[in-house]
Write a structure and sequence with these properties.
By secondary structure, the chain is mainly β. It has 1 helix and 57 strands. Strands 11, 12, 13, 14, 15, 16, 17, 18 and 19 form a 9-stranded antiparallel sheet that branches. A hairpin with a 6-residue loop joins strand 20 and strand 21.
Length: 669
C-alpha cells in the first residue's frame, strides 16, 4: 500500500506565490507572471506609478498648479510661473495621461509676469478654465483670464482685473451646478487685507464680476474657497484670521446671482498661528469637507473634517498627520467616499498620505515616500481613473524644473475587477501575506473554508471576490455548494451556450428515486472532450454503482479493455483498487463509479466529474470525485473504451436506487 499523499496532491491543492494579501477562502486569479492575487475590485497603491516627467525645462518654475478637465478624459492643465523668462512669466500647458504615461503640449504665456496663480475648470463647459493671478507688472493688480482648450492647444481671452490693487492668497472655485459661474476669495491689500469674495461669470472668453463682499474684517491669509457640488449655491472658505494671530477659521457663503451672503465663521484651530491652509470638499458626501493646515507653533501638519448644515459648520477633532511639514496640499478622492489625499514635504522628505474619514474622525495611512527634493507643490485626482493622481512640483534635484509624477492610492472597491473568464483557478486554503507561498484549492477540488453557502446551489465568482448564486460580469462558475462551508470547485467556466470553454449538452436533477439515470441520443461530433458532472448524488444503499456506455440505446454496451477505480479512506493512509469490472463480458463493459462496501458511507453523497476524451477509435477516461463517510474520501477513475464516440451514457445501481443529485453533461470542441 502507498500513502494518500504519495498518490494525490493534498486535497487538490497546489502552491503559488501570493501577490498581495490573500484572505482565507477568497477566490484567486492567476496572473501572467505565474503569481496569484485575490479576485477583487481593489487596486493596490502604486506611488509613484512611473518615472517623473518635466513639463518645463526653461528654468526654475514656481507655483505649479494643476487641474483636470472633468469633461475630457485624462486631460489636465498645469499653470506655473517660469523664471526662465524675463521677470517670471505665467504659462499654462496641456497634459495628457495614457495609462501611467504623461505627455505635454506646448506651453502658452498668459501673462508676462505673474504671481499667486490659481486654476479651476468649469465642470459645465468642456475645455473651459479660468486662471486668477497677481499681475506683477506694475501695479500688481489681481487679475483673471479665461482659457479654452482645443486638443492640446490653449487660447486665452482678454485679462480682467477683479481687484485694482495688490492681492494675495487668492483662490477660485467654479459652481458645479451653474455653467460659467465661479467665486474668488482673496486678501484685499487695498482694504486692510480683509478677507473678500466676489462672484465671477464667464461668457465665451469674457469675465464679468459682481460686487466684492468682505466676510472677515480682519487681516486674513491663506484663503481657500470651494463649492459644495452636492448643495446648490453653497461655498465654503477657510482662512487664517486676524494675522499675525492667525487662528484657523471657516465660513459658509450662499451665492444668489452675482451676490454672496455669509453665515458666521467657526474656528477650527485656536492654539496659535495657522498657515498653509488648504481645503477640499468631499464630492461623494453632501456638506462634508476637510482642511489641511500647519500648526506653526509646532510645525505639525494637521487635518480636520467639518460638516455643513445650512450656513452652520461643526468640526471633528483635529488630527496630526506629520510631526513636521513645510508644504502640503489636500484633495478628496472623487472615486471613493470619505477619503482624501495629502501631498506634503518636510525634513522627512516628500510623501503621499491617505486620510480615511468616518463621521468626522480621521485615520491616516502610513506615508508613501516620493524620491527627490521638491517644493511649490500641487496635486489633482484623475476623475476618470480610480485612485490615480498627478503631483506637480519644483524639482530641486532636477535644476528646479517643473516636474510631474503619476501615482495611485489603494482603491478598495469601485475599481475595475481583475477577474476574467479564464483566470480564476480556485480558492485560498488560508490567509497569506504578500509574497508568501500560498496553498490554493484548485478547480476540481473541494474547498471547506467558506461560510453561509446553501447546499446544492451553484455559486459564481463575483467581480469583488465574493460568491453569489447569480452570475456577475464576467460570468465565472465557482462550483456547487456541498454544505454551508464546503464548495465543489467546478472547472467548467462556461454554461449553456458556449463562448470559448465548455458548452452544456444536457442536464437533469433527480428528486424521485430511480434505478438508473441516462443521457441518450447524444450527438457529440462537435466535441473532443465530454464531461459528466455529478453533484450531491445520493443512493438508497451502499452497493455497486456503475457507468455504462452505448451507441445503440443500450441494446449493447461498449467494452472497456482497461478501467480502474482508486479510492482512499479519509481516516487512514491506505487506498484500494478495483479494475476491469466484468458484469457482462470478459473484458468488462462497466466502470465502478462507487465500489461495493469498501467505504462505509453514511450519507452516501458523491460529487465529482468524469471526462471522456475522444481520440480516434478510442475513448480515454479520467476523473476525480469525493464521497463522504465521516469525512471526504477521494476517488480517482480511469479507463479506455473501444469506441470512437458514444450516443448514450448511463449511471446504474446494482441494486437500490439513485435518490437525489444533479447531473450535467458538457462538451468542449
Amino acid at each position: 500500500m502507498s500513502t494518500l499523499s504519495a498518490l494525490l496532491p493534498a486535497s487538490g491543492a497546489s502552491n503559488f506565490v501570493a501577490s498581495g494579501i490573500l484572505p482565507n477562502g477568497i477566490p484567486v486569479a492567476l496572473k501572467a507572471d505565474g503569481t496569484i492575487e485575490a479576485v477583487n475590485t481593489t487596486l493596490p497603491a502604486s506611488i509613484p506609478s512611473a518615472s517623473s516627467v518635466t513639463y518645463s525645462t526653461n528654468g526654475q518654475t514656481n507655483i505649479n498648479k494643476i487641474a483636470f478637465d472633468p469633461n475630457v478624459a485624462n486631460q489636465f492643465v498645469i499653470a506655473y510661473k517660469d523664471y526662465g523668462t524675463t521677470g517670471g512669466a505665467g504659462l499654462a500647458v496641456v497634459g495628457t495621461i495614457t495609462g501611467t504615461t504623461l505627455t505635454f503640449g506646448t506651453p502658452v504665456v498668459f501673462n508676462a509676469k505673474a504671481g499667486y496663480i490659481r486654476i479651476a475648470f468649469d465642470p459645465n463647459t468642456t475645455g473651459k478654465f479660468a486662471l486668477i493671478y497677481r499681475d506683477d507688472n506694475s501695479p500688481n493688480y489681481a487679475t483673471s483670464i479665461v482659457g479654452s482648450l482645443t486638443g492640446t492647444t490653449i487660447t486665452f481671452g482678454t485679462p480682467v482685473v477683479f481687484n485694482s490693487n495688490s492681492s494675495y492668497h487668492n483662490s477660485i472655485s467654479f459652481d458645479p451646478n451653474t455653467a460659467g459661474k465661479f467665486v474668488v476669495a482673496y486678501e484685499d491689500r487695498s482694504n486692510s487685507s480683509y478677507a473678500t469674495a466676489v462672484v465671477g461669470t464667464v461668457s465665451g472668453t469674457t469675465i464679468t464680476y459682481g460686487t466684492p463682499v468682505v466676510f472677515n474684517a480682519n487681516e486674513a491669509r491663506y484663503l481657500n474657497v470651494a463649492f459644495d457640488p452636492n448643495t446648490a449655491n453653497k461655498i465654503l472658505v477657510a482662512y487664517a484670521d486676524d494675522f499675525p494671530n492667525g487662528y484657523g477659521k471657516s465660513i459658509v457663503g450662499t451665492v444668489s446671482g452675482n451676490s454672496i451672503t455669509f453665515g458666521t465663521a467657526v474656528t477650527f484651530h485656536a492654539t496659535g498661528v495657522t498657515r498653509d491652509i488648504f481645503l477640499s470638499v468631499d464630492p461623494n458626501a453632501a456638506g462634508k469637507f476637510a482642511i489641511a493646515y500647519e500648526a506653526v507653533s509646532s510645525t505639525q501638519g494637521r487635518a480636520v473634517v467639518g460638516l455643513i448644515t445650512g450656513t452652520t459648520i461643526s468640526f471633528g477633532a483635529s488630527v496630526e498627520y506629520r510631526s513636521q511639514m513645510n508644504d502640503h496640499v489636500i484633495t478628496y478622492n472623487p472615486n471613493v467616499a470619505n477619503e482624501f489625499i495629502i501631498f506634503t514635504r518636510g525634513t522627512a522628505g516628500a510623501a503621499i498620505i491617505v486620510g480615511k474619514v468616518s463621521g468626522t474622525a480621521i485615520t491616516f495611512s502610513e506615508e508613501s515616500p516620493l524620491a527627490g527634493t521638491m517644493s511649490e507643490m500641487d496635486i489633482a485626482m484623475n476623475p476618470n481613473a480610480a485612485g490615480q493622481f498627478i503631483s506637480t512640483y519644483l524639482s530641486s534635484t532636477n535644476s528646479n524644473y517643473g516636474t510631474a509624477v503619476v501615482g495611485r492610492v489603494e482603491v478598495l472597491g469601485g475599481a475595475p475587477t481583475n477577474l476574467t473568464e479564464t483566470n480564476f483557478i480556485g480558492t485560498s486554503t488560508s490567509t497569506y501575506a504578500d509574497g508568501e507561498t500560498a496553498s490554493v484549492m484548485l478547480q476540481g477540488g473541494i474547498t471547506t473554508n467558506q461560510t453561509g453557502l446553501t447546499a446544492g446551489s451553484t455559486y459564481y465568482v463575483q467581480p469583488d471576490g465574493t460568491l453569489a448564486t447569480s452570475a456577475g460580469t464576467p460570468s465565472v462558475v465557482a462550483g456547487k455548494a456541498l454544505s454551508a462551508t464546503s464548495l465543489f470547485l467546478s472547472d467548467t467556466p462556461v454554461a449553456s451556450g458556449g463562448g470559448g470553454g465548455w458548452t452544456e449538452i444536457s442536464s437533469t436533477t433527480v428528486s424521485t428515486a430511480v434505478a438508473s439515470l441516462a443521457f441518450s441520443s447524444l450527438s457529440l461530433s462537435a466535441y473532443s472532450v465530454v464531461r459528466l458532472e455529478m453533484y450531491e448524488m445520493d443512493r438508497s444503499n451502499n452497493l455497486y454503482t456503475y457507468i455504462k456506455i452505448s451507441n445503440d440505446g443500450f441494446t449493447t454496451l461498449e467494452d472497456w479493455p482497461l478501467n480502474g477505480t482508486v479510492w482512499f479512506d479519509n481516516t487512514k493512509t491506505d487506498y484500494d483498487l478495483t479494475s476491469n469490472a466484468s458484469r457482462a463480458s470478459a473484458t468488462g463493459n462497466s466502470l465502478y463509479l462507487i465500489p461495493h462496501n469498501t467505504i462505509t458511507v453514511v450519507n452516501k453523497k458523491l460529487n465529482g466529474y468524469i471526462e471522456f476524451i475522444l481520440k480516434g477509435d478510442t475513448i480515454i477516461v479520467t476523473g476525480v470525485g469525493t464521497v463522504y463517510d465521516d469525512g471526504p474520501a477521494p476517488i480517482l477513475w480511469t479507463g479506455v473504451i473501444d469506441a470512437a464516440t458514444f450516443t448514450d451514457i448511463k449511471i446504474e445501481c446494482d441494486s437500490g436506487t439513485i435518490t437525489a443529485g444533479k447531473f450535467r453533461l458538457v462538451g468542449m470542441a
